Please model this.
Amino acid sequence: MKFDMGSTTLSELGRQTTGSSDDLGGLVKQLIAAAAPLEGKFNGAGRAVFDSFKENTDEITAALNGSLQSILGGQAGMGTAFDSGVQEQTDNANQQMSAANFDAARFGAR
Model:
């Protein structure tokens, strides 16, 4: 199995996640607006849950967005680690090449 990730993969993923975060809050608010005609149609425990959800919309949205922000933080950390690994690999390769004696490997060298 080969894992090949381009240098812009994580930054693109971060942009997409940021867009999802913005959309999510709007979707929760749309859900409440769509459910508005149902208000007053429930009785008992169903009504209590519906009213609780409606009252806590802002908290629910904040919790979901907080979770997405944590995901974004993880993606940023992965991006930093990936970039650092690429730089370290480059530095190590350059160091090894500068220490190598390429002239000794030539069989016809004089």
